[in-house]
Design goal:
246 residues, mainly alpha, elongated
Length: 246
């Protein structure tokens, strides 16, 4: 007795199932997140149990979470493309870190950054942000940092003939001067302060790690002063606003 022939799979259904699994992989969803999304969008925890309309609804949900969709003919992103996306994400995180230390944020967590990315792009998490959608996020963060302090910005002059780290530190120094915390303004005042702490005579002579630590110290000082005046420095749960000698 011959075995019963299997029912052929509808080509359209096969294509939908393939897209579901591709989207899951590209979004980096773990098992629980994937099953939960299937249930929320299609009513079942297994893609095999969904009909074509439900599978299409699942794909719409994936697209809302940042999946770029129809690119079957495109090759898988190579190392260069992945490196480019990660470089953009690092820049986004660096700008967010600068905004925190400029006293512009009341919440500097990764969760808050993800929420900002979603507002700008619709992508749920920074970790899922592709390189070709990063520019609006980077531009918005740079514009925020450049806004005057009286408009809840950081007052950074990105057009100055200095490195980005110097631009951020100078903006911090100007804000501290406006708060009456330092007397000598400008780069000369900042350089003198760094030298008084045992550093080199000029900020630009600092190595990257030392420059970042200087920005962190200035940020803790600035946020403490802003918090004392009811500004953004009073964020909950951040250890960097603890008392520190300037």
């Amino acid at each position: 007795m011959s075995r019963a022939a299997r029912t052929p799979v509808d080509p359209a259904r096969r294509a939908l199932l393939a897209k579901v699994h591709i989207a899951r992989k590209e979004l980096g969803l773990d098992e629980e997140a994937y099953r939960g999304l299937l249930e929320a969008a299609g009513g079942r925890r297994s893609a095999a149990e969904l009909d074509n309309a439900q599978l299409a609804a699942v794909l719409d949900t994936f697209r809302a979470k940042g999946w770029s969709g129809e690119r079957r003919a495109a090759p898988r992103p190579g190392p260069r493309a992945r490196d480019e996306a990660e470089a953009h994400r690092r820049k986004v995180r660096a700008l967010w870190w600068c905004l925190w230390h400029l006293g512009c944020l009341s919440e500097g967590s990764e969760k808050a950054l993800d929420a900002f990315v979603k507002r700008q792009t619709g992508v749920e998490k920074l970790a899922w942000l592709p390189a070709d959608r990063a520019a609006p996020v980077i531009d918005a963060l740079k514009d925020w940092a450049a806004r005057p302090a009286d408009r809840r910005g950081g007052g950074v002059n990105w057009g100055a003939h200095y490195s980005p780290r110097v631009c951020v530190a100078l903006a911090q120094w100007r804000r501290l001067q406006a708060l009456g915390q330092v007397r000598l303004g400008g780069l000369a005042g900042l350089d003198a302060w760094i030298a008084s702490k045992g550093g080199p005579e000029h900020f630009e002579a600092l190595e990257a790690r030392a420059a970042d630590e200087t920005i962190r110290r200035l940020g803790a000082w600035l946020r403490r002063e802003l918090a004392a005046r009811g500004g953004a420095g009073g964020s909950r749960g951040d250890a960097e606003t603890r008392r520190e000698e300037p």
